[in-house]
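Hi, here's the filled form for the chain we discussed.

Project: internal
Contact: R.S.
Residues: 338
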Amino acid sequence: MTPLPGRRPIHTAYVGAHLFRARLAAEWGELALKTLADCAPDAAGLTAALDYQVDERMFARLKEKLRREPIEDLRIDFEDGFGNRSDQEEDAAAQSAGAEVASGLAREAVPAFLGIRIKALGAERATRASRTLDLFVRSLVERSGGKLPAHFTVTLPKVANAEEVAALVRLLEELESRLRLEAGALTLELMVETPRALLGPDGRCPLPALVAAARGRCVGVHFGVYDYSAALEIAPSHHGLRHPACDHARRVMQVALAGTGVALSAGSTNMLPVAPRDHLLRAWMGPAPRATGDAVQRGLRILQGVSGIHGRGRARGPGGPRGARQPGPTGARLWGDQ
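And the returned structure, exactly as it came back:
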């Protein structure tokens, strides 16, 4: 199993590939600082907004973090956040995004953790997903002189069976060989978005077999709240992180992968901290303001108690998701709101 790095980002942000540029994370940080100045300009203001005690030291660390590293982990999204476009558009976006990452690497301007989400490898989209992966990685490596981000991951959505995972592994091996990358340099993450990924027709949980099919490359498994809820025919008005069906899915993931070293991301939110003020405050507080493990309060506790900021989860940016992860009580790491 590929070991996880000692540092764990507290969130993963997704952005549509057509919107990605090298300075995007810095621009989001500048926007966050402006929003903070407008709505909670000091520790007392943020305490009142969050109903959580924020002292001056924590507030100063928060602002420093937003200046230095507002996004810890970023996925350039060619799936839901990008949509179905013409082959010409997706080809161009893949090459452009790879070039932008190379530019950001040269200026040390990209997040410490970075990756792309390709389309699913089912029969209908496999060719398109493979081509996008090839174009992106080739563009990045050719423009960076063979360099990859330190922690680079390919996210595979809507995983249905082990054959799809094995197919992605073959694609990654071919890319490493052709581009003369170190064996194992390209890692992967799997997204659980269908009931059949948790419970197979034979009554067994397929997750261990899906991870095993990655042959040591799988560093994470993400839970896809909205597609999973829709697959269970839950009404859209009830889709969300705190639905009991999602709680059950997360616990199955946690039990199935306990002790494997695979990090689990517990779900996503598409609520952005933007105006108007009441919407902003709801986003700051998370999908369930009083729920234990609220992402914002968890991040503040990390700022308060840890000299180096560690942790991770998933959330949706403009055209993609973002969130927060945190170690869970078992061997598998259950990371909070995405």
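Let me know if anything looks off before we file it.
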